[in-house]
Design a protein that fits this description.
Number of domains: 1
Radius of gyration: 13 Å
CATH superfamily: lambda repressor-like DNA-binding domains
Order of helices and strands: HHHEEH
Strand content: 5-15%
Helix content: 40-55%
Structural class: mainly alpha
Largest sheet: 2 strands, antiparallel
Number of strands: 2
């Protein structure tokens, strides 16, 4: 991950994941459609993950399988896509 501050909420976490996906994709000269096809997901699904939102007010929450497939298509490890979690406030715990 780049030198961005750690995310503080699930919304920020989902967006940081999307930014890293975009950075890795562009570094490899791939379009969203190329990466989606190689990972076996639809372009729309991929765009939602990269944007960090499924729909207005709902942060992206891709499965581990989808993250693994995207990482494999990028020829990296899934952990290379994930932001740090130490300061994330999940909003569902007291």
């Amino acid at each position: 991950m780049a030198n961005a501050p750690p995310p503080k909420s699930w919304e920020e976490y989902a967006r940081a994941l999307g930014i890293e996906l975009q950075r890795q994709r562009i570094a490899r000269g791939m379009t969203q459609e190329d990466l989606a096809h190689r990972a076996g997901v639809t372009r729309t699904h991929y765009q939602q993950i990269e944007r960090g939102w499924w729909k207005q007010g709902s942060p992206a929450n891709p499965s581990v399988k989808v993250l693994a497939k995207l990482a494999q298509a990028l020829q990296i490890e899934p952990g290379d896509l994930l932001p740090p979690v130490a300061r994330v406030g999940w909003g569902d715990t007291p």
